[in-house]
Each structure stands twice: as C-alpha cells, then as structure tokens.
Specification:
By secondary structure, the chain is mainly α. The chain has three domains: 1-30, no CATH class; 31-113, no CATH class; 115-183. It has nine helices and no strands. The chain has helices spanning 3-18, 37-53, 69-73, 83-89, 92-98, 119-130, 143-155, 160-167, 171-190. Helix 2 (37-53) crosses helix 9 and helix 7 (143-155) crosses helix 9 (171-190). The longest helix is centred in the C-terminal third of the chain and has 20 residues, at 171-190. It is elongated, with a radius of gyration of 20 Å. The chain starts with a helix and ends with a helix.
Length: 192
C-alpha cells in the first residue's frame, strides 16, 4: 500500500475510534532530518530510552512491550527493519552495549533543534576554520584534513546542502565524510 494511502487509512481508522476530526498529528509533533549515520544511532538510542526516562521500564527492553528494542535483541524482527542500524554498529552485541548506559542524547529536542546558519555567517565560519581567502579553497585540502574540517563545520551548524553549495564540494562527498567520521565518534563514545 502506498505511503499516502496508508496514512489516510490510519487517519480514518483513528477518527472512527475516537470520533474525532482533523490531523492526527496536531499539537506538539515536530521532526528533524536524520542526515548522518551517527545521528541515526543517537536517534535510535534516544527512542529506546524514552520509556525508561518516562518511568515505564527500568532499562530498554525490560517492560515496555511496544519498543522496537526487542527486534534488535532477536534474529527475527517484527516491528522494525534492524539491518541498517545493526550494520552501522558492527552487529547486535555492539548495539546492545550502546544501550548499557543511559546517555542524555541531544536529539529531537525542540529547544535544541538545529537553527539554520545564514550564508554570510557560514562563509565567515568556513574561512575562519580553513584559514584561507576563499571557501572554494576547501576543495584543495588533503582529503583527511578536509573531512575533519567539514565535520567541524557541520557541528557548528552549517548544513550539508549549505556546505556543498558554498564550497562546491559535492553533497555525496560531504555525507560520506560525515557518516564515516561521526560513525567512528559514536562507536568510541558508546564503548566508553
């Protein structure tokens, strides 16, 4: 069933059950893009710790039956497609180790939502980090140094698209650099 039809069907069923009208997601719903592997892993862990933070269970996978965490514990998933996340962590054992300790994740929090950095400010940040005269010079940096600078720029609030547009570096190159670097950082942080 196409996604749009599925959403319509769910909405109609919801309204029949509660005798309501309007958008199902009215109110405090908000979203943000999950645009790197590191952020995906943080978001998954954030979601799995929500029932724990709400006091519904002592740790992920203990008492809250609607959590996708159970799918990551067993070989056959029922709710979630676990393949991508498990491959990013290096397997089930490392994934479960990531959930041994509750960490305050900065993710999906309205007050900590990424704010768009204006282009003129982004250019100043890029020039300052690169210590160069033109943002296009970042293309000429050795790959490892360029990738580290791109991660720093991303962490300072410059989006992937904005970084690509301003520097001329293809979006896919930036995404791969961020995914690789942030994946390593996330693994190191989760093992501490």
């Amino acid at each position: 069933m196409p996604r749009q039809a599925r959403k319509k069907s769910v909405t109609q069923t919801y309204h029949v059950v509660i005798k309501g009208a309007g958008h199902v997601m009215d109110g405090r719903y908000f979203s943000e893009p999950v645009d790197t592997a590191g952020y995906l892993l943080r978001a998954v862990r954030y979601i799995h710790f929500n029932p724990t933070k709400a006091g519904l269970e002592s740790s992920p996978g203990t008492d809250y039956p609607w959590s996708s965490f159970f799918d990551y514990q067993r070989d056959s998933a029922k709710l979630a497609d676990t393949e991508q996340v498990l491959s990013l962590t290096g397997g089930r054992e490392t994934f479960l180790e990531m959930h041994n300790h509750m960490v305050e994740e900065e993710c999906l929090d309205i007050d900590k939502c990424r704010k768009r950095v204006p282009d003129d400010v982004a250019v100043d940040i890029i020039l300052q980090q690169c210590k160069c005269d033109s943002v296009k010079e970042l293309q000429e940096f050795p790959q490892d140094e360029r990738n580290q600078i791109m991660v720093l720029l991303y962490k300072k609030g410059i989006s992937i698209r904005q970084l690509s547009r301003l520097t001329g570096i293809p979006k896919g190159v930036i995404e791969r650099a961020l995914n690789k670097t942030l994946k390593i950082e996330t693994k190191e942080a989760s093992l501490k």
